[in-house]
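The step that takes the researchers longest sounds almost clerical: writing a folded protein down as plain text. Below is the pair of lines this work produces for a single protein:

——
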Amino acid sequence: MLSTDTKKTAIFRNYLIIMGTLATLITGLGGLFENPDRLGQQDRLDNYGRFVSGVVVNQARRIRR
């Protein structure tokens, strides 16, 4: 019976450690993705993607003619 209590205590302790670690990671990653500098970078990447798409479409039209 003593070993059962020890195992339950260890499982509960490990569960708390894992939940604390996950909460810390999620908070840190959430802050990273909500960073205003990163949002500005995403706008630049979106604009660059539109430019590249336009070039690809233009080249496809030229090849088709």
Q: What stands out?
A: The CA atoms of residues 23 and 48 lie 35 Å apart. The helical segments are 2-33, 36-64. The radius of gyration is 26 Å.
